[in-house]
Amino acid sequence: MDMSRIRVVIADDEPITRMDLKELLSAQGYQVVGEAADGFDAIEMCRQTQPDLVLLDVKMPLLDGLSAARIIYEEDIAETIIMLTAYSEWEFVKTARDQGVAGYLVKPLGESSLVPSIELSVARSKEMRQLKKDIRQVTDRLESRTVIEKAKGLLMSQEGMTEQSAYDYIRKLSQSKKLSMRRVAEIILMRSGGR
C-alpha cells in the first residue's frame, strides 16, 4: 500500500502525543491532514478532510473518543478508525468494536507497532467498504428486478400484454422519459395501486 496516499487525522488531548504521532507518521510517508484535541474537533476535522484514517484517543475532553468514533462511523466521514489508549480493558475494546473501530492500540506507541497496525487496519477497512458496496449493488439490482417483474405482471393482467411486450413497454418508456426501468415500473405500480 502506498503510505504517502494515506491521509490521517490525529485526535488526542495531549499536544505532545499529537506532535510525536505526527512526526512518526510523517517520517513514514503518511500525510497528516488534521489534528484535534477533543472528540468534537475530531468529528469536524473528519468532515472537512474525509481522511483515510483517524487516530482517536479514548479519553478526551468534551466528547470522548469512543463517542466520536460512533459519529464518524455513522456519518462515514473517515475510512478507518483506530483507537489509541492507555486502557486495555475488555469493556473499551468491545465498545470500540461495536462503534466501527478497525484497530485498537495501547499507549505508549512505537513505530514497530503503529505502522503495521495502520497498514492492516486500512487494508481491511477498504476490503469491508468494497464488500458493502458490492452487496448494496447486488441488493439494488435484485430489488429493481423484483419491481420490474411486478410491473410486467400488472401490465400483463390489466392490459393483456405478453411478457415480452410488457418488458418492451417499460423499456421504451424508460428510454423516452429518461428514467430508470425501475422508476418506470414503480410509477406503473403506483398508478395502478399495485405497490
From TrEMBL:
A biological process from GO: phosphorelay signal transduction system
Single GO term (MF): RNA binding
InterPro entries according to UniProt: ANTAR, CheY-like_superfamily, Sig_transdc_resp-reg_antiterm, Sig_transdc_resp-reg_receiver, WH-like_DNA-bd_sf
SMART domains: ANTAR, REC
Positions carrying 4-aspartylphosphate: 57
Keyword Phosphoprotein annotated: yes
SUPFAM superfamilies the record matches: CheY-like
Xref: Pfam families: ANTAR, Response_reg
ANTAR domain location: 128-189
UniProt keyword annotations, A-Z: Phosphoprotein
General function of this protein: May play the central regulatory role in sporulation. It may be an element of the effector pathway responsible for the activation of sporulation genes in response to nutritional stress. Spo0A may act in concert with spo0H (a sigma factor) to control the expression of some genes that are critical to the sporulation process.
Name of protein: Stage 0 sporulation protein A homolog
Record organism: Agathobaculum faecis
